[in-house]
Design goal:
single chain, about 100 residues, mainly beta, Jelly Rolls, four-stranded antiparallel β-sheet, about 10% helix, globular
């Protein structure tokens, strides 16, 4: 398994997703996405619904997040959970590098 792409995502007060163009690699979806939460806590959903500052999975600053299910990676959405914006720098991995 090898890393094939990364990006910087600013998480503010509206839901954001992983960049779709980066998820497609040689016609294969990533097998894993990994990131660390920086600057402010966030909330995420993995079912395609929009998280809010009070709904979704809460993730604190400094947490290392690993997502290994393709549909969860595709459906990932995040929003900040306080008035402090956050940053994540996901790395994407697949089995076909």
């Amino acid at each position: 398994m090898g890393a094939y792409a990364s990006e910087k995502i600013l998480i503010e007060d509206f839901p954001v997703v992983f960049t779709p163009a980066l998820l497609a690699h040689k016609n294969n979806l990533p097998a894993k996405a990994v990131f660390v939460v920086e600057f402010g806590p966030i909330r995420v959903t993995l079912d395609g619904t929009d998280p809010t500052s009070t709904t979704g999975i809460p993730i604190d600053i400094g947490a290392v997040v690993t997502i290994t299910k393709e549909s969860d990676i595709q459906n990932f959405k995040a929003i900040r959970s306080t008035n402090v914006s956050s940053v994540i720098n996901p790395e994407y991995f697949n089995n076909f590098n």
